[in-house]
Structures are given as C-alpha cells and as structure tokens.
Amino acid sequence: MQPGILQVQDLRVWYHTPRGPVKAVDGLSFSLQADERLGLVGESGSGKSTIALALMRLIRPPGKIESGQVVLDGVNVLELTEEQMRRLRLASIALVAQGAMNSLNPVIRVREQIADAMRDHDEKFSKQEADARITSLLEQVGLNKDVADRYPHELSGGMKQRVCIAIAICLRPKVILADEPTSALDVVVQRQVMETLGRVQEQLGASVVLVGHDMGLMAQFVHRLGVMYAGRLAEVSPVHEIFSEPLHPYTQLLIASLPSLEEKGKFQGIPGLAPSALDRPPGCAFHPRCPHAMPRCSVDDPILQEARPNRFVACHLYDADILAKANGPATAVAT
Amino acid sequence: MSTLLEAHQVSKIFGGGLFDKRVTVALDDFSFAIESEPPRVTAIVGESGSGKTTLARLLLGLVSPTTGQVRYNGTDLQKLPKQERRAFLRDVQMIFQDPYEVYNPFYRVDHVLETPIAEFKLANSPQAGRALMQESLRAVGLRPDETLGRYPHQLSGGQRQRIMVARALLIRPRLIIADEPVSMVDASLRATILDNLRQLNREYGISIIYITHDLTTAFQISDNIIVLYRGAVAEAGDVDLVVKQPKHPYTQLLIKSVPEPDPNHAWGSVELTEAAEPTNGAATVVVSHVAAARQHGGHLIQGCTFADRCPHVMDMCRQTAPPLFHIDPGRAASCFLYREQGPALSSELLNDVMAAAGSSTRSESAPPSIAP
C-alpha cells in the first residue's frame, strides 16, 4: 500500500494513575489514504476517543503519548514544537469532537466564531473577503447564510453541529477527525449531518477518520473500518468485506450483536466483559471471551497482519494463512 | 381483561409564567391503557422533545398531568389511598436510563436489592431474602458471588443495569417502565439486557413499556409501538405493521433515517426539507390558546405538529390537529392523508387499536400509495 496522508505507527497513549498506567491506546498502527473515509469503531474504554485526541496532540496529563509515530503529510507531528503544532491544527488536521456543538461560545455570533478560527491562523483578509468566505462555508455545510448572524442558542443541535463542521473545514484541512459527531442527535438529523460531512469531505478532497461506537453509522459512511479492542486494532478491512465476512472473532460477535430492522430476533450479546485497561489479559486481550481461543492465545500476543488482500487481522486463527503467504507466492495467489 | 394503568386524555404543559406567553406542550391529549392480560411489550418511540420521558414520569405519578388523569386500577393516581399507593409502588417498577446515578456509591449493590425485600416483606428470613436476591440475579445472567458484596464502582455499566432489571424482577411487578435502559450500554451487552426484559415479559408475565429513541431495538423486543412526535401520537399499532409499512410521513422519515448495519443497504432516499428541524424539540403554543383548548377539550396544539417538516403537507394540516385514523385492524395514524381510509378515532380509542394489534392477523395487502 502506498504511504497515505496520515500514518500512525505503534502509537501508545497511557494515562498514569496511582494504580498504574491505564493503557488506553497500546500499539496502534494504521494508514489513511487521501480521499479515504476510515472508521474506528469500539466499545467504551477501547481507546477510540483517546486516538482522536492523540492525533491532534491534545492529550493532557495524566495522559501521555508514550511512543510511536504520527506522520501527517510527511511530518511527524509528535516531534513538532507546541507552536508548530498549533499552526497545524485546523490548517492540516481538524477535529469535530463529541458534542462539539456545545463548545460554541453562547454569547458570540456564528460569524465571529468562524472568523476567529481563520484569524488565529494568521489569515489576512478584508471584511468583505471574510464575509464571502463565511457565506461559502455555511453553504458548503448546507446552512443559510443568515445563520452567520445568529447566536448558537438560536440554532438547533444539527445546525450547531454543522457550524462546527464549517469551522473545522475553514482552512481546508487534509484530515478531518470526527469523534462521535452525531451522538447527541436524533436519527433524522444525524443523517443530515453525516451527509453534510461526506459532501464536504468529497469537495475538499480531504480524508475523514470517523470514531464511534455505532456500527450502523459506520456501514453507511466509511470506506474502510477498523475495529478496536482494548486499545488496539483487532481488524481493519474494507467496509463491505468486514460486514459480509468478519475475520476476527470479536468482529464476528460484534456484528452478530447488532439488531436490525430487517429481521427479528437475530441478535445476541457477547459473553463476558471488556477487559480493564489497567489489567490487560496476557496474550490476545480477547481470549477470555473468545469462542475459538486456543492455548497459545493466552500466551502469544497476535499482531495485525494481512490475512487476505487488503484485510488485516490480529488473530492466531489466521496464522496458517499468513505463513502460507510468506512461504511461497505459489500457494497464495491472490485471485 | 382488566386495566392496570391508564392515561386518560392526558396533557402536560411546562412553563408559561407571569410574563412568558408561550408554554411547552410536552404531551397533548394522550390516552393509552396497559392491560395486565395479556402482558405485552409496548415501545414508545420518539426523538428528543417528543414527550416520551414526560409520559414515563406521568405514568409513575412523578409529575401530575395538566389535564386528564392517570389511573391505577381505575383510581386517579393523585388521589390514591395509602394502601393502594403501596400496591401501586409495588406493581409498577421503573428502570432508568443511567445505571450510574441510581446507586448510592457508599452502599454495596446489595442495598438496592435488600431495600425492596424489607419494604415489601418479600421474605420471611434473611436467608430467604438472600436466596431471592440470588435467584433474581441469576435470572438476568449475573453470578451472585461475583455481584453481591461489591460497590457500584466495581461493576460495569452493563452489570449495574442488569442489577436494576434483577431488582425489578425481585418485586414481581405487573408493569415495568424502562426509559432508555440500554442507551448507555455497549452493543455487546445491549442484546443481553433487552433479552432479559423480553424474558421478564414472557416467563413472568410482566407488561413492559419500553421507552426509546432507537427504533431498531423497539422493533426487536416489542409487540406494539407508539410513535410520538412533539407531544402527539403520530402512529401506533402492531410493531411489524408500523416498521415494515409505515404510514405516517414522520414514521417513514424516521425509518428511512435509521443507519442499518449493512453497507449494501444504503440510507434510503428521503425528501429532507432543509431547515425543517425544530430548534427546540418540543412544541410550544401561546397560553391563551391553551385556555381555549381546555374549555373545549381536544388538542392543545393547533394543526399537525409535523406540518412544517412534512413533504405532503396540506392546508388542513396547519389548521386542525389530525385525529387518529384507524387504517388497519391493528394500526392507526394521525395524518390527514388517510382521512378516507379509515374512521377517525378519538384519542382514548387508541386502546382498541392496540388491543387489536396484538391479536390481528397481519394485513398482507399492498400499502396504499402515499400521495393524497
């Protein structure tokens, strides 16, 4: 695979507590292509929001980025100074956070809040230019231009979230991180906001990392999906393939747990509990809940490997496939 | 067939002080009865501001209706004699959304199970009480030795929510009102908790009101469904009919907006009217109108609450609130598009529709076309 716009190598983010380090993200690697929509899905505590903050370098103590590389458009952002990073945020990589709509300043009109973001990055422009850009930004996110003169409380939740998207794209970033951007919205509005985000992404030619827990939303929005478990990726695959043929046992159970409007009674829970980030089970973190666990799963930590073309999975069930591929190209002819 | 709990022409308005001429209508002329036989699972679905939580609070007697009555065994909840009130508190149990807030962090989780046993004298001896607690925990799939004696913070959100289900079971109520019981629980546990609720209904004959914004889980576990929109019933009836062949334009919009966990099943094409999203979920009307409506009875809200977002809106929709039209044996929709397809019902006749919904044979006929 060619190097993408964003590459994450072996990223580790730990929160240091009196009871020991909480390894929220512990050895995460992925690569994001230009124009791509990547989803990162996981249950609470799987480390998905920590990833979004770490990519923006917004982790605060007691959290710390322990090691790894985050290469954005050829620059390792973990080595930048705070001032360099500040310039990069919004200009190259922007975040639409969970409940971002509540971060709008209630006593300032929308116009000023968008202009503020642009001004802070030393963009020089006249009042007319600024107004024209704000109008076009609002149009891009499907809002009427008179929204600029309103206060946040005069807008609905979906409109506020779209204003936040407008702020996120005001400097045409290459990567947009969206952390549960619609978790507080109703389904009808959720759909409008996601369609807005998708349209904007295509217009800008940007890439999107969508972080969330809703598999339905992922199925509708992303091109490639990574499934997080205990701070790592269990599986990364193109979205159609992950839903039609999930490889990792956790992904299989997760998909089987989803209720649908199609058929009744076809969903079941996953037995057991998610592991504590303080006390990660040895070997594969999923082995205590895994129906296919083998003796080596409790000892050997599986690494994320390409088990099928473009499909990566961290599970010993696929060791034989990967071995076969490594040993002889004759046995692993990709069809 | 006896009516356990009944909302009779209930409206609830909030706000409207000395200077504020506008009030929020959380629920507008709503009637619904829960029969103890047969025990059903009824879903109440709506988005934020639709009045679903207000309805739960009204049914529990936590707030009193502005007009109308909530009756338990035929008696107004506000006028229950002491003895009956105790019976009510036992018969009707609640499971709340947030499994973190209902626990006192200083007590072990045993406390939430011991209290009802002591209060309602469910056991003759401490040993019997202990056995009862263990039995109900096992019924929801928890291991008593791993659960009892722990403090709330030592358990996960899903475990805590299951203890609340176990607690509800322990009391052997006749009705459980569950307000978004799984919205704060991860996908892997959601199925288990919903299964627990379904089991309480099937095996213990407990009626359940499942209040949610999530149409998918409502479809999975309920028999009947009531779709609320801004304080009014949009559509109600048999859950298969309503989900598979929605009639009310709002239900249609809602169902098409659900993101299906299947990339091959894309979001259907929906006519989305831009800026049609209400800034405040609930409907507001002016005070003077409320006074007039109270005298004449009927709806507080003028016109259909969905009119400003509806792709099929007609003039009459803005003038009169649509009554429920009884368009299938087990379903009614309050939309003028169907004014010629079934008789108009007064709100309290919704019960007949719901009763028919459970027993009706599914209508296999093609859905009538939507265009007026």
Strand segment count of chain B: 14
Number of helices of chain A: 10
Return the domain count of chain B. Answer: 1
CATH first level of chain B: Alpha Beta
**Would you tell me the overall average pLDDT of chain B?**
82
Biggest β-sheet of chain A: count, sense, barrel? 8 strands, mixed
Q: Mind summarizing the main beta sheet of chain B?
A: 9 strands, mixed
Query: What is the SS-derived class of chain B?
Result: alpha/beta
Strand order of the largest sheet of chain A: 6-7-8-3-9-10-12-11
Low-confidence spans of chain A: 330-335
List segments of chain B where confidence is low: pLDDT < 50 over at least 5 consecutive residues.
Answer: 360-372
Question: Order of strands across the biggest sheet of chain B?
Answer: 6-7-8-3-9-10-13-12-14
Per DSSP E runs of 2 or more residues, the count of β-strands of chain A stands at 12
Q: Could you please describe the fold and organization of this structure?
A:
With 335 residues, chain A is an alpha/beta fold. Chain A has helices at residues 48-55, 82-88, 110-120, 127-140, 157-168, 187-204, 215-221, 239-244, 249-256, 319-327, and strands at residues 6-17, 20-32, 37-41, 63-72, 75-76, 93-96, 175-179, 207-212, 224-229, 232-238, 305-308, 311-313. In chain A, the strands form two sheets. Chain A has an eight-stranded mixed sheet, sandwiched between helices. Chain A has a four-stranded antiparallel sheet with strand order 2-1-4-5. In chain A, strand 4 and strand 5 form a beta hairpin. In chain A, helix 4 (127-140) packs across helix 5 and helix 5 (157-168) packs parallel to helix 6 (187-204). The longest helix of chain A has 18 residues, at 187-204. The model of chain A is unreliable at 330-335 (pLDDT under 50). Chain B has 372 residues and is α/β, with parallel strands linked by helices. Chain B has a single domain (3-99, 175-265, 278-359), classed as P-loop containing nucleotide triphosphate hydrolases (Rossmann fold, 3-Layer(aba) Sandwich). Chain B contains 13 helices and 14 strands. Chain B has helices at residues 52-59, 82-91, 110-119, 126-139, 144-147, 157-170, 187-204, 215-221, 239-244, 249-257, 287-296, 315-319, 350-359, and strands at residues 3-14, 22-35, 41-45, 67-72, 75-76, 92-95, 175-179, 207-212, 224-229, 232-238, 283-286, 324-328, 331-333, 344-345. In chain B, strands 6-7-8-3-9-10-13-12-14 form a nine-stranded mixed sheet, with helices on both faces. Chain B has a five-stranded antiparallel sheet with strand order 5-4-1-2-11. Chain B is globular and about 65 Å long. Mean pLDDT of chain B is 82; it is low at 360-372. Classes of the chains: A alpha/beta (335), B alpha/beta (372). Chains A and B meet through helix 6, helix 7, helix 8 and helix 9 of A and helix 6, helix 7, helix 8 and helix 10 of B.
